[in-house]
Input
Amino acid sequence: DSGVTQTPKHLITATGQRVTLRCSPRSGDLSVYWYQQSLDQGLQFLIQYYNGEERAKGNILERFSAQQFPDLHSELNLSSLELGDSALYFCASSVRWAEGEKLFFGSGTQLSVL
Amino acid sequence: GESVGLHLPTLSVQEGDNSIINCAYSNSASDYFIWYKQESGKGPQFIIDIRSNMDKRQGQRVTVLLNKTVKHLSLQIAATQPGDSAVYFCAENMASNTGKLIFGQGTTLQVKP
Output
């Protein structure tokens, strides 16, 4: 168990809908990362937050947004969902924000868009 | 662009043999590398890391080798066990002032009993 908690484990929804994925980082970790894993793209970095502030952005679509709350948990919001958004979404956390940090991953949320 | 690539998509080894998983990276500015193991239905699990000022690091049954000249990373697993069967990813972090990791496509390790 990595100590990173993600909910829900599975999510089935329809195209055009909006969903929220939730992540609680390991105790003491201030940085949260979101990754998308699909068969054809592998593990793709989406966005990083550190202590409530956006730290780095990857290939995150404009339809997607995230935030990190004062209690350090994070939410990833996916809207106007398309079939191609079906993927595993992972949250990871680390103590700080900079290079050389080990990232600890949660078990992921499997999103299926029908 | 940013990319980390793996030489072989699938590696099949006999139980008890040593395994070597290879990875090529393209960013010469990368200064930190990690190997992750992902089992079915689970998130990536940290195995071992290495910084660019080292060329070898050993853990329990695992060794990571870094060759900066040819931008190559390898993971050696000694006495491979059935529980080692998983997908293995290498990941790199550039000195980009963030902790974000760029992942390779992954290699599936199959251990035959």
Summary: The radius of gyration of chain B is 13 Å. The CA atoms of residues 23 and 57 of chain B lie 16 Å apart. Chain B touches chain A at residues 31-32, 34, 36, 41-46, 49, 51, 89, 91, 93-106 (CB under 8 Å).
